Amino acid sequence: MSCGEHHDVDCSEILQRVYVFIDNELEDATSDEIRHHLEECAPCLDQYDLERCIKKLVHRSCGDEQAPDALRAKILTRLTEARVETASPD
Ligand SMILES: [Zn+2]
Ligand SMILES: [Zn+2]
């Protein structure tokens, strides 16, 4: 996935790291890179928001336990549907 703009760090690389970034397990230097990227890249920011949202919902449903893939997929589907519903038509 790419927004077509040039970034210091490639979008695919950011998206791979964003999960770790959400968990705050990245070193500061790397977090800054990601934060900077998210500021200038809407598609990646969207993805980041989505992942954060899923994480919050999964956490609420499962506590500290790892969410089963099925639940994660269900939440993702619901979020995607909600986004489609709220999207304004062109
Ligand atoms: Zn990006
Ligand atoms: Zn971009």
List keywords for this structure.
90 residues, flat, mainly alpha, binds zinc ion
Description:
There is one protein chain. With 90 residues, the protein is an all-alpha fold. The protein has one domain. Helices cover 71% and strands 0% of the residues. The protein contains four helices and no strands. The longest helix has 21 residues, at 42-62. The mean pLDDT is 83. Bound molecules: zinc ion (2 copies). One zinc ion (ZN) is lined by residues 3, 7, 11, 14, 37, 41, 43-44.
The total of beta strands comes to: 0
Fraction of residues in helix: over 70%
Going by helix content, strand content and strand pairing, the class is mainly alpha
Radius of gyration: 14 Å
Distance between the termini: 22 Å
Strand and helix order: HHHH
List the uncertain runs: none
Main sheet specs: none
Per DSSP, the total helix count is 4
Oligomer: single chain
Mean residue pLDDT: 83
Overall domain count: 1
Shape: flat
Q: Give the names of the bound compounds.
A: zinc ion
- Relative strand content: under 5%
